[in-house]
Amino acid sequence: MLAPAAEALGIRFSVLAESADAPATQVISEVTVGDYTDYATLKAFAETVDVVTFDHEHVPPEHLAALAEAGHAVRPGPQALIFAQDKIRMRTKMDELGLPNPEWATITSLADAEAFAERVGFPFVLKTPRGGYDGKGVRVVEGLAEVDEWLRETSPLLAEEKVDFTRELAVMVGRSPMGQTAVWPVVETWQQNGVCKEAIAPAPGLSAERATAITEAILTVAGALEVTGVMAMEMFETAEGFLINEFAMRPHNTGHWTQDGAVTSQFEQHLRAVLDLPLGSPAAREEVSVMVNVLGADHEDLYQPYFHVMAHDPEVKVHLYGKSVRPGRKVGHVNAYGADRDAVLARARHAADFIAGIDPDPYPDRPAPVDLDALSAEAPALEKDPR
């Protein structure tokens, strides 16, 4: 998804892909297939480009430091990226900056876990400090036996209180080497089995004061860590305020709505930032923008449902990733926008779920979607497929 933004800006774009059929190879002509954990491979690839950037945080930090020391422009730099790679270092830094963290502790022994349980009680959340994403590397533990089982496999672990939150929020910022910043509106997110399913921009009912506090927090982080590129900050909203959950220093799922709903998408902004170009406006184009992920189910053919979705609602925007389908895997997303939040959300949900080939409303814990047939009289674009 960075490729179209690079093409529009007239930027030569190359990719180091894990395999010859990786999604990026389908849309980028200059491809090197290799192992991103091998320093020699990284070094050879870096020699062919002016700036190196990332679409995940799993590149070994010592390799990135070596590239930077060798004079290659690595953006974000390893001194910033480490805080998205290592959750314990992230928690420590947030405490140093005085930003709202949940209660947490480093766990290397059962004694550590017992002391933490005395502070916050069971259950609490246990995480691997590195490598987890989309709910992987995260467990809710009910007792010391479960902690002991995981400690035998991995140490240290990060323990966090199980936050009593009202909803989840996210915000994204772009920052260039010259220090220019641009922040998109705060969004509300909804998780399905630990995977982001929906994002609504702006977050409904978020007070101006809390939105300002969140914006100030992400600007503090971006400046203190000298982030280059775009960064996402995910949060828990509570009755008292908000608590920081995780960071991602790259284009992020919670910012996919910006492709169609913002003046400048997160993908264009990331390229502008890492190349130290003036940043674009992060302003929303519409009153409401919604992103709903297409999560893999039993239906492998994602392309035939295009016909129904395009005919049923010509205004939704579908983005598929060229990935093989696995249950629960993010294989695409749908963006929709407009003035009526409930209607926009219903349209995006219908399209995403129809493409995935699942029941259009299998989620009893999320708000009931609006009746699309009832809306069709008011929105001609929602008329049923005449075939």
Automatic annotation (TrEMBL):
SUPFAM superfamilies: Glutathione synthetase ATP-binding domain-like (SSF56059), PreATP-grasp domain (SSF52440), Rudiment single hybrid motif (SSF51246). GO terms for biological process: 'de novo' IMP biosynthetic process. One of its GO terms (cellular component) is cytosol. Its EC number is 6.3.4.18. Pfam families: ATP-grasp, PurK_C, RS_preATP-grasp-like. It comes from the Bacteria. Pathway: Purine metabolism; IMP biosynthesis via de novo pathway; 5-amino-1-(5-phospho-D-ribosyl)imidazole-4-carboxylate from 5-amino-1-(5-phospho-D-ribosyl)imidazole (N5-CAIR route): step 1/2. Keywords: ATP-binding, Ligase, Nucleotide-binding, Purine biosynthesis. It catalyses: 5-amino-1-(5-phospho-beta-D-ribosyl)imidazole + hydrogencarbonate + ATP = 5-carboxyamino-1-(5-phospho-D-ribosyl)imidazole + ADP + phosphate + 2 H(+). ATP binds at K87, K127, E160, E161, K162, V163, E168, N245, E246. Residues 91-275 form the ATP-grasp domain. Residues 359-387 are annotated as: Disordered. GO terms for molecular function: 5-(carboxyamino)imidazole ribonucleotide synthase activity; ATP binding; metal ion binding; phosphoribosylaminoimidazole carboxylase activity. Belongs to the PurK/PurT family. Catalyzes the ATP-dependent conversion of 5-aminoimidazole ribonucleotide (AIR) and HCO(3)- to N5-carboxyaminoimidazole ribonucleotide (N5-CAIR). Homodimer. This is N5-carboxyaminoimidazole ribonucleotide synthase. It comes from Brevibacterium celere. The gene is purK.
